[in-house]
Amino acid sequence: MVRVDAGGSFCGMRRDNAEKGCCEMITLISDIDGTLLGDEKGLSEFREYAANTGIRLIYATGRNSKEFESAMADSGLPEPDAYILNTGADIYIRENSVYPVDKEWHARIGAEWEKEKIFACIPGGGGMRGQGKDEEYKLSYFVDEESAPEIRKAVEIGFERAGLKAEILLSHGVYMDVLPAGCHKGSAALYLIEKMGLDKDSVIVAGDSENDAELFECFAAGIMVSNARRGLAEKIKGNGHYMSRSPYALGVVEGLKYYERIRG
């Protein structure tokens, strides 16, 4: 349980809005680093926008619990209604002033997660090394940017030969995460809004890097900030999402205002 002061694809999951009596409030599911964080002026405008509009906030980040708490304490990010950590592996939903971890999600993604076997199957060296983190449902590595695609393919082949199932995600050219099969920000977000009784059509997602791509794939309305990596742009090209002209949090605010206009 965290206090903050200041298996498979789930992309078809949806709950009837009327069943839970949800209002028309917008839910923003956003990455943090490189999306909301990166420019203090932009973050200040985002805080003001969030306070004035009362949008529901959910963060989705690759950070672990300790790193996320540090970001909340140091950056001045608005307190969220829920958050997704470790690139989708951990979900926390606010209950009063605390955020207990969602154990049902862990039971779902952990059904076929054989962490020790998967770890043993990943070759050492060859342009990759561990990040030194010990997370229950995520293995994290640094990889050489030039050889990252080849490294990913080699790891994937190794898993197939060993009969192991896992999700392999590259981001920023130098990070590789290995998670339970079907576990990523998109599937975690869909599970989360289902559990919170939120309307999928009320969700707007925002991101800047390749590990945000599944968010854009699972939701119809997305904001790609102008500083986004080319890898994300290539993955979501032609999907109808909003491409901001501004970077970081300014780009998120720009995108939110765009969706305000087109939705009336």
Keywords:
single chain, about 260 residues, alpha/beta, Rossmann fold, Hypothetical Protein Ta0175, Chain: A, domain 2, 2 domains, 7-stranded mixed beta sheet, 4-stranded antiparallel beta sheet, 13 strands, disordered N terminus
Assign the CATH superfamily of the largest domain: HAD superfamily/HAD-like
Helix amount:
25-40%
- According to CATH, the fold-level topology of the largest domain is Rossmann fold
Number of helices: 10
Integer average pLDDT: 90
User: Mind telling me the C-alpha Rg?
Assistant: 18 Å
Describe the protein's architecture and organization.
The protein has 264 residues and is α/β, with parallel strands linked by helices. The chain folds into 2 domains: 2-6 and 24-108 and 183-263, Rossmann fold (3-Layer(aba) Sandwich); 113-179, Hypothetical Protein Ta0175, Chain: A, domain 2, CATH 3.90.1070. Helices cover 38% and strands 19% of the residues. It is built from 10 helices and 13 strands. The strands form 3 sheets. A 7-stranded mixed beta sheet has the order 5-4-3-2-11-12-13, with helices on both faces. It has a 4-stranded antiparallel beta sheet with strand order 7-8-10-9, with helices on one face. β3 (56-60), α3 (65-75) and β4 (82-85) form a beta-alpha-beta unit. α2 (40-53) runs parallel beside α10.
